[in-house]
């Protein structure tokens, strides 16, 4: 089955998804599995229920427990994709943590450094390490990468992001653009930058960002011109689109399902 504008693979397409145990990542895993992909997931916290409705034969999705800050964890999940499913066509870098909206004067220096290092390590270094592990196999298959950015890759006020999360998501945009230039023409690299999506997103110290979900969804709705709060399932097909022949001419691009924040 062809998965890209590049070479054709005789086998079914294969993806690696980081942070695929919850929220947007889990919806991406389900969407890919429902559309013919085999998927290897890397996540720190595997869900108790590892089945997804689309994984009817129990064989489409495989799970690896590991931390995206650990280079070997990425090697393990890429090795699993290749040994179990026969190759790699798509790498989705998605695992992330939030900073809880901290301002630069909210914490003492040591605490600020700890939060900032954790968020930058997961949301930026985790993406670099994934790209490093996946680049070779993707060049072999003519595949692509898709990363999860955020409205915080562009906005700095009003969206709940603090200074560390804004820094990380701005930096992740730089990662996407650099990789797109670096890996062309062998591997395309694109991104999806959602606005507020109610998920299990946590802060570096483990608090749920959407704990007061009603209040937060009202704020998200108020912020964007379309007045929407998207569900992970609504965003997931965009990842598959960016990996498909329809996007064969796109690299270094970002799709922004954020209710129109750029024209606010
Ligand atoms: P989520 O918490 O539901 O999913 C994130 C997943 O990443 C979890 O399964 C978590 O276990 C995993 N993870 C976190 N740290 C990890 C680590 N060190 N190693 C391995 N796995 C780790 O949250 P989500 O909202 O689905 O977040 C997915 C991505 O979407 C993140 O990059 C986030 O920044 C981004 N994002 C979210 C929103 C939103 O409103 N929810 C908006 C824009 C962008």
UniProtKB/TrEMBL annotation:
Alphabetized GO MF terms: oxidoreductase activity, acting on NAD(P)H, oxygen as acceptor
TM stretches of this protein: none
InterPro entries per record: NAD(P)-bd_dom_sf, Sc_DH/Rdtase_CS, SDR_fam
Alphabetical UniProt keywords: Oxidoreductase
Gene3D superfamilies the record matches: NAD(P)-binding Rossmann-like Domain
Keyword field contains Endoplasmic reticulum: no
Record has Oxidoreductase as a keyword: yes
Pfam families assigned to the protein according to its UniProt record, in alphabetical order: adh_short_C2
Similarity section: Belongs to the short-chain dehydrogenases/reductases (SDR) family.
Protein name per the record: SDR family oxidoreductase
């Amino acid at each position: 089955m062809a998965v890209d504008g590049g070479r054709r693979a005789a086998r079914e397409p294969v993806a690696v998804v980081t942070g695929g145990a919850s929220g947007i990542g889990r919806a991406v895993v389900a969407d890919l599995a429902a559309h013919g992909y085999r998927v290897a997931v890397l996540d720190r916290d595997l869900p108790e229920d590892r089945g997804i409705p689309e994984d009817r034969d129990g064989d489409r999705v495989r799970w690896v427990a590991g931390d995206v800050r650990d280079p070997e964890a990425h090697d393990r999940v890429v090795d699993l994709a290749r040994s179990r499913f026969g190759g790699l066509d798509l790498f989705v870098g998605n695992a992330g943590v939030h900073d809880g909206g901290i301002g630069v004067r909210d914490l003492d220096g040591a605490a600020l450094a700890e939060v900032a290092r954790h968020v930058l390590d997961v949301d930026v270094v985790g993406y670099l390490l994934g790209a490093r592990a996946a680049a070779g196999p993707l060049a072999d298959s003519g595949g692509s990468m898709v990363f999860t950015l955020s409205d915080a890759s562009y906005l700095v006020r009003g969206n709940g992001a603090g200074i560390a999360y804004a820094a990380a998501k701005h930096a992740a945009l730089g990662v996407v653009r650099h990789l797109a230039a670096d890996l062309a023409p062998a591997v395309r690299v694109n991104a999806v930058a959602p606005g507020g999506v109610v998920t299990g997103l946590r802060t570096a110290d483990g608090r749920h960002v959407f704990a007061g979900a009603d209040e937060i969804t009202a704020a998200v709705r108020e912020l964007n011109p379309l007045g929407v709060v998207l569900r992970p399932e609504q965003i997931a097909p965009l990842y598959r689109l960016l990996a498909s022949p329809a996007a064969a001419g796109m690299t270094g691009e970002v799709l922004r399902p954020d209710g129109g924040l750029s024209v606010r």
